[in-house]
Design brief:
The strands form three sheets. An eight-stranded parallel β-sheet has the order 5-6-7-8-10-12-13-14. A four-stranded parallel β-sheet has the order 1-2-3-4, covered by helices on one side. Strands 9-11 form a two-stranded parallel ribbon. The protein has two domains: about 200 residues, TIM Barrel; about 240 residues, Pectate Lyase C-like, CATH 2.160.20.60. It has 15 helices and 14 strands. Strand 3, helix 5 and strand 4 form a beta-alpha-beta unit. By secondary structure, the protein is α/β, with parallel strands linked by helices. It starts with about 30 loop residues before the first helix and ends with a helix. The protein is globular and about 80 Å long. It is about 25% helix and about 15% strand.
Length: about 500
């Protein structure tokens, strides 16, 4: 699989990916709301969607998703799917999309949430008739994947994840891709016929617009379908129940979610960083921060990405010095060229998705706390980070650097599950670690100061090798942080000396 993993892509050639991946930044509906807020900050134009499997009780979850300010929710049925899914998921996950969709629509309407969120359905949709039934059960939008792929030549060999697709649809192999016979017109024709069938059925039912049809369960007739002695005992009353609400309650998506972006601290940061954004002129910004200021730096990073892409700005073009206690996701998605320096402490998700920036956190000068004995950043720090630097003068919580794939970080202690699923980068822990360290770690380097001598008991050695650092006085040290990333096999002692000195300088 040498076609994957090149450049800045955060995968390692030859290492299997976990699909579906665990979301270690989501353990509650509040965590989901925070993730939605983070994503909306970095790209205000994006529609944030949450996909839920169709099952009993999905309506309650969908209501929570709406309250978490998602723009879009997808109810996915047990049919359809790709060959990349595990066989257990293909055969056993979820129920029919009709059941989950009906429950979701009714729950959202009864809680006066339906107008705030678009409801999509997918999972084996093949015809205009499926679209009409989905609309009558409450869907705004419809997802077609397998059927569209078949129009391009897919024969459902279930080899999407093996790079051996015989028709060239789902492969990066140049020889197999020569067999691809699909044309854009095939997909266009397919959806044209779908739309034509929907239009014809709408005319038969007497609907002038598509929105009129959404949620009209009363227009569904099951008499012919259950006209059989085996099906006479089936009761569809609850599935086809129309919520008893007034005319002021929306039955389809007609409102825009309020994400509160106008109150974000980044609006002020963007104004003060205007010279750097427009002409790359270095700027230095100082301002206080409070725990109500969430996702600081993300909106600014989105502006940088829009203008300059992943390359960002030159190092330290925008230097932001803050004092206080930062809210969640401090430095989330921070772009290259931005340095966030905080005298104080921060909550969970610091440096989430870090994309080249630098985060520095140390105690305030008047603090009497001993940094190496106290928490300075919360849980799930550097989750999914791909590039950049972090220096923490204190201890981090659980799940530090989970799925880190390129960041260099120094911290003075971590909780349980540190460096889990890490695929790249360099982490230095100048203190104690929790249990299950390096579980699923398939790449990168972690240095741990083992003063107590219990590291081997706390480290999950299923995928990592443990080595002691030996003195190497003759080795040339790295000149800068780029040398560390470019030479992962260099002298461990020289690399550590450089990083610890850098840590001391910044913090």
């Amino acid at each position: 699989m040498s076609w994957c993993g090149g450049g800045d892509i955060s995968v390692t050639p030859g290492v299997g990916l976990i699909s579906p991946p665990p979301h270690h930044d989501i353990y509650s509906i509040e965590d989901l709301a925070q993730l939605i807020h983070d994503l909306k900050n970095v790209n205000p134009k994006a529609r944030i969607s949450v996909k839920l499997v169709s099952e009993i009780g999905v309506g309650t979850v969908a209501a929570g998703v709406s309250k978490a300010h998602a723009d879009h929710v997808t109810i996915s049925g047990n049919d359809g799917g790709t060959g990349a899914s595990p066989l257990t998921s293909i055969m056993n996950a979820g129920s029919f999309w009709e059941l989950g969709l009906a429950e979701t629509h009714q729950t959202l309407v009864l809680n006066r949430l339906r107008g705030r969120i678009a409801v999509q359905v997918d999972g084996g949709l093949r015809s205009g008739r499926d679209v009409v039934i989905g609309a009558l059960l409450g869907a705004d939008e419809f997802g077609f994947s397998t059927a569209a792929l078949i129009s391009q030549g897919c024969i459902m060999m279930r080899k999407c994840h093996l790079n051996t697709c015989p028709t060239g649809v789902a492969t990066q192999d140049p020889e197999l891709r020569k067999r691809f016979s699909g044309e854009p017109e095939h997909v266009i024709n397919f959806f044209t016929f779908i739309a034509q069938e929907v239009r014809e059925i709408m005319a038969e039912l007497g609907f002038h617009t598509f929105n009129e049809m959404i949620g009209r369960m009363d227009r569904l007739d099951t008499a012919k379908a259950i006209n059989h002695w085996k099906a006479k005992g089936l009761d569809f009353t609850r599935i086809f129940a129309k919520p008893d609400v007034g005319p002021d309650v929306a039955l389809f998506n007609c409102e825009v979610q309020n994400h509160g972006l106008d109150k974000a601290l980044d609006n002020e940061l963007i104004n003060q960083a205007r010279p750097a954004l427009e002409s790359k002129t270095p700027v230095k910004i100082e301002m206080p921060v409070r725990n109500i200021n969430r996702t600081v730096g993300a909106m600014l990073s989105g502006e940088i990405a829009n203008r300059y892409g992943h390359a960002g700005l030159d190092d330290d073009t925008i230097h932001i010095l803050m004092q206080g206690t930062a809210g969640q996701s401090f430095g989330g998605w921070l772009a290259r060229g931005v340095t966030l320096e905080l005298a104080g402490d921060a909550n969970d998700y610091v440096g989430k998705g870090l994309s080249g920036g630098r985060v520095i956190i140390y105690p305030q000068a008047q603090s009497s706390l001993v940094p190496e004995d106290n928490i300075i950043v919360g849980n799930t720090v550097l989750y999914g980070a791909i590039a950049g630097e972090c220096y923490f003068r204190g201890v981090a919580g659980e799940r530090f650097a989970v799925r880190n794939s390129g960041v260099t970080a120094i911290v003075e202690g971590v909780g349980d599950h540190g460096c889990e699923y890490m695929t790249g980068g360099c982490v230095v822990v100048l203190g104690q670690i929790g249990s299950n360290f390096a579980a699923g770690m398939s790449g990168g380097i972690a240095y741990v100061l083992d003063e107590i001598g219990d590291f081997e008991k706390r480290c999950n050695t299923a995928m990592v090798d443990i080595e002691r650092i030996t003195p190497d006085q003759d080795a040339d040290g790295p000149n800068d942080i780029n040398d560390i990333l470019a030479d992962p096999l260099g002298s461990d002692e020289a690399r550590l000396r450089f990083l610890i000195e850098r840590h001391a300088t910044f913090t």
